[in-house]
Write a structure and sequence with these properties.
Blueprint lengths: L24 H11 L4 H19 L8 E3 L7 E6 L6 H7 L31 E8 L2 E9 L5 E10 L4 E7 L4 H10 L8 E3 L16
Parallel strand pairs: 1-7
Antiparallel strand pairs: 1-2, 2-6, 3-4, 3-6, 4-5
Helix pairs in contact: 2-4
C-alpha cells in the first residue's frame, strides 16, 4: 500500500534536536517482532498469508489459493506457500532483513507496505526457514535470533527448479492454538487457502446487511 508521510510543520524555534533510533537495535527488533503483536499466532498467520496474497496479486492471480500447512504432533511446523514470482537472492536480503523495506509502497493494490510482516515469525520462534523459487532457482535460507537478540540469515543451498513462489516455515510450540488461530484468520478470505495438516473444515463467513 502507498504510505503517505507528509509532515510540514513550520516553527520559529531554533536548535531543534531530531529524534533517532538507539544503537541497541535488539530493543527495536524485540518490539517490532514480538511486543507489537498481542495474539501472536493469529498475527503471524495473518501477516504471512497477506504477503502470500500480495504475491499472487503481482502475477494477476487473485483467484489462486495460497497453500497453508498447519502443525501436527508429527510435524510441529506452520508453513505458508505462495506461487507468485518469488524473490531473487538480492531481494531476499533487501526486503526480508530490513525493517521498513518493502516492494509494495507504490500501489494501494497490495496489503503490505511497512516491511514488518515478513519478520513476524520472530514473535513465536527464534528460528524459521524461507524457500524462494525464483528464475529457475530454489534457494533456502535459515533465519535465527542470535545471542544479542538480533535476527541473522544464512543461505543453506541453491538448486535448479521449475517452480515459482515463496515458502515460510516456522517451528511451533503447541498445535491447537495454531489451528484455532487459523480458523479465525481465514474466516473471511474470499479465496480459501489450500489447508493441510487438519481434518477440520474451514468455511468462509459471509455477512449480508440490508439498509433501509
Amino acid at each position: 500500500m502507498i504510505l503517505e508521510s507528509v509532515h510540514n510543520v513550520a516553527t520559529n524555534l531554533k536548535d531543534s534536536v531530531e529524534f533517532s533510533v538507539s544503537d541497541d537495535s535488539s530493543k527495536i527488533f524485540a518490539f517490532l517482532s514480538n511486543f507489537l503483536y498481542r495474539d501472536k499466532e493469529r498475527s503471524v498467520i495473518t501477516e504471512l498469508s497477506s504477503n502470500a496474497l500480495d504475491a499472487h496479486k503481482m502475477i494477476g492471480r487473485d483467484d489462486l489459493p495460497i497453500s497453508v500447512t498447519l502443525p501436527t504432533s508429527l510435524v510441529p511446523m506452520f508453513t505458508v506457500r505462495d506461487f507468485g514470482p518469488g524473490l531473487s537472492e538480492e531481494n531476499v536480503y533487501l526486503f526480508l532483513t530490513k525493517y521498513g523495506s518493502s516492494s509494495k509502497g507504490g500501489s494501494n493494490e497490495f496489503i503490505g507496505g511497512f516491511g514488518i510482516g515478513s519478520k513476524s515469525p520472530a514473535a513465536v520462534s527464534d528460528t524459521w526457514n524461507i524457500k524462494s523459487y525464483h528464475a529457475g532457482t530454489e534457494t533456502e535460507y535459515l533465519i535465527h535470533i542470535n545471542d544479542k537478540g538480533i535476527p541473522n540469515i544464512n543461505k543453506l543451498y541453491s538448486k535448479v527448479t521449475t517452480e515459482t513462489g515463496l515458502e515460510v516455515s516456522i517451528p511451533t510450540k503447541g498445535i491447537n492454538v495454531w489451528h484455532d488461530a487459523a480458523k479465525v484468520a481465514y474466516a473471511h478470505y474470499e479465496v480459501m487457502p489450500q489447508i493441510k495438516g487438519t481434518s477440520s473444515k474451514f468455511d468462509n463467513v459471509k455477512f449480508t446487511t440490508t439498509f433501509h
